[in-house]
Amino acid sequence: MLEYDIVIVGGGGAGLYAALWAAENTILKVAVITKVYPTRSHTGAAEGGINAVLTHSVGDSPEAHAYDTVKGSDFLADQDAVDIMCKMGAAVIYDIAHRGVPFSRRPDGRIAQRPFGGASFPRTCYAADKTGFYILQTLYEQCLKNNVTFLNEWFLLSIIHNGERVEGITAWDVRNGGVHLIKTKAVILATGGHARVYWNRTSNALGNTGDGTAAVLRAGLPLKDMEFIQFHPTGLAKTGILVTEGARGEGGYLRNKDGERFMKRYAPEKMELAPRDIVARAIQTEIDEGRGCGPNGDYICLDLTHLGEKRINERLPQTREHAILYEGVDPVKEPIPIAPTAHYSMGGIDTDKLGRTPIKGLYAAGECACISVHGANRLGGNSLLDVLVYGRLTALEAVKYADDAPETNPSFAKVKDDEKRILELMEASGKEKMPQLRRELGEVMMKHFGVFREESSMKEGLEKLYEIKERAKEVKVYDTSKKFNTDLISVLEFLNLVELAPAIAIPAVERRESRGSHARKDYPERDDKNFLKHSVIKLGEDGSYQLSWKPVVITKFPPEERKY
Amino acid sequence: METVKLQVFRYDPEKDAAPYYKEYEVPVEGTLLNALLYIKDNLDPTLAFRAFCRSEVCGSCSMKVNGKTKLACKTPMKELVETWKGKPLRIDPLSHMNVIKDLVVDIDKPIEKMKTLIPWLVPDPRVVPTDPMHESIIYPEEMKAYRDQIHCMLCFSCYSACEAVEDNSRYRGPFAFSRAYRFQVDRRDIETAKEKRIRYAISGGLWSCVQCQKCLYVCPKGVKPAEDIQNLRGQSVKKGFTDKPGARKLKHFVDWIYATGQINRLYLPEEVYGNKEAREKLTKAYQEMGVEVWEVPKPTKGLMKFRDIYLEILSKENKALELDFSHVRKIDKMVSDIFKADICTIVDRAHERGESAKGLIGKLKELLGGK
Lengths: 564, 371
Known about the structure:
The complex is a heterodimer of chains A (564) and B (371).
Chain A: E1 2-3, E2 6-9, H1 13-25, E3 30-34, E4 50-51, H2 62-72, H3 79-98, E5 113-114, E6 124-125, H4 131-145, E7 149-152, E8 154-161, E9 166-173, E10 179-183, E11 186-189, H5 211-218, E12 223-224, E13 229-236, H6 246-249, E14 253-255, H7 276-288, E15 300-303, H8 308-315, H9 317-327, E16 336-345, E17 348-350, E18 362-364, E19 369-370, H10 382-404, H11 413-426, H12 434-448, E20 452-453, H13 455-471, H14 486-510, E21 519-520, H15 528-531, E22 533-539, E23 545-551
Parallel strand pairs in A: 1-10, 2-3, 2-11, 3-7, 11-18, 17-19, 20-21
Antiparallel strand pairs in A: 4-6, 5-6, 8-9, 9-10, 12-17, 12-22, 13-16, 14-15, 15-16, 22-23
Helix pairs in contact in A: 1-4, 1-10, 2-3, 3-10, 5-14, 8-9, 12-13, 12-14, 13-14
Chain B: E1 3-10, E2 20-27, H1 32-43, E3 62-65, E4 68-71, H2 77-83, E5 89-92, E6 99-101, E7 104-105, H3 108-115, H4 157-161, H5 163-167, H6 174-184, H7 191-203, H8 214-218, H9 225-238, H10 245-260, H11 268-273, H12 277-289, H13 303-316, H14 325-339, H15 343-352, H16 357-370
Parallel strand pairs in B: 1-5
Antiparallel strand pairs in B: 1-2, 3-4, 3-5, 6-7
Helix pairs in contact in B: 3-6, 6-9, 7-9, 10-14
């Protein structure tokens, strides 16, 4: 048994920033467990930037940032939490800049900012088109500096709690094999999103499988607003790999097969720089109505050719490289084929405005959490901010709690359970093949819970998801070795997705309105009277999904029509 | 569908007595990573490799293809098939690290090594405000100094390809020096940390790099560790760390070339390694071979003009300080003692006699031909 005071699960932006703040503010024993080496976490793929109102952002204010965020969220975000996040923007930006993040600078040496979708001021701080990468690398350096304990390549299995407070977790040591009990007073989950549930069409890394979120669900604890999944408008047509919003920020055009800049029909003012949900729906509509490009009419063209080679090389080097490498298209010469791609989970572990779950000592931060600061649709540049603000806040909360909390006494029963579960997977029938089933899961999610949704289709989809969940019991792990068993990890990740899928589907069916990323053809309008509320879902004793609702916190900004 | 055969390195230390290669037929489509995922999904779920982002930012999937270090997600299958003309492609784990299983290697050791070089910012309070709401001003031009180094994503390709890692287990690895150097040229980093980094770099094998430049070629992100290592060496000399053979060699090169236009092959062993007998032995050997030897190389044509140019170049590179003028004066004195005149006269006289470099080669040819 391993023993710590605070365990942080996940080594991405939120996890590392939490570790850093915990390490610098306490003598408690802190450890980070992560299924990949920290610098490989998906924060590193965040390109565009991080929103914050800085001291030199003339005319802008945290309040304006909060308003944009709330409006972007289609008024589903909790305004007290948004207020905290936006007010802390400058503090976290300066903090990480002081630690070495190489933010792009203005000629006068101050941090540069650029316009981003849905923002009323240019307030997105950036470091070329690799902002998340530099933040992740810098935070890792700083964690090394502070001698943070890392358990690299450990996989979270279960959360242990007694209904009141958290007692520990169980985890699989990937490198050596074996289930371990980790005793701890506080746990911060920073395990990232679950958009991999759309397996065949997502911008996410292979491992964004909602491991923490699924563990919370299995622990009988609530998830919130799971129906909201953001589709990024511009994923490469073949692979779903992301083309940054910066490509449109720099002046890229979206064109259909007639060469028309169709955004003028959807967001005449903001055009290509409307928020992501609106642009994604516009693209999907063009494709659905037969105005897509290519032989199958299944993509749209992102035209950067008018920007010229020099500007593309300077501002969007990674975009050009990826287009050539993964799409076989040089954006200097031809438009890039793109289509919406599953990108971000607005929903996740239900927490309050400080990242606390209903269980004492259990916190969540970053994409796995639903605070909620993004509501029904996240603005570009707000995820890195969320990651840092809540990484830091949960760390301080955890320190405060663990400092006074008595020792915990987690039982070994969970270890036995998990060991049994893994053994059963290795001895399963193998009637179903995991990769095949995973593809089916992705197809069902995309077809029935994609950019546009509709009651009868979703109900049909939900039935299929239950069916996949049943069939998943026949999935077998073929690799029986202990060391670095990636077959086992892939199957565990897949099973997490299988558990999360109905948690997305059920509230999607029940939310009979269109709000943010949740766009229903049968209910095209937002319905504040009936649905200005969070969906909350958890597993009952019998393993059934139980849906309930809870109010949205509204302070300064009363809901209004959302127009761009 | 076009296919190609991959021969993949397999080794499970729990089960296999020795590593072996297993052959898989994969479609020539997408990247090498797609091919490996194809194997895992369709042919053999037990194959172990690391992969995560799929888009060349996380550095997980570095490996070797027919001996060449590649990032799998950045390597199109078509390109591999064209390069190797459809021959089987042998996929190996990275070198210089222990294999955990199949293509997965233990990267803890290089990370531990890197940590010793202080690869993080140690802020100078005079530049970085301690007030968290106060911005520290950085001008865009000064960021150019480390614009390449910050791309390092810890894929360990350079560590695998490095010649020095092979020879010296204490050697920190190319990426580690680059990541340390990044802070050596950051104005925000405090001077005491910079000096410490140099000490640790020297102790970590700074002078062991043989400048084979492999790191520079294998880096998928355009980092140039070999250059950073040269610059760190320059910094170390400038900071007065001159007691290492590498530093002394540098000093020998710089000083003798300035003084005479060439290095001194007789004095090199003594000045670099303190080997006093080498000069005598070499002199004797050259004489026996019938090769004319001078204790001091004859100054080359246009030496004084050359000195001006050389000095100008060094000062542009901000390395003029590395020239040890007292050493140069000593060399000058040797030159005048041997040739019985001051350095300016010798050069002029040599030219008058038409003893150019061409003449010298002719003379050597005569000698060799005469034997």
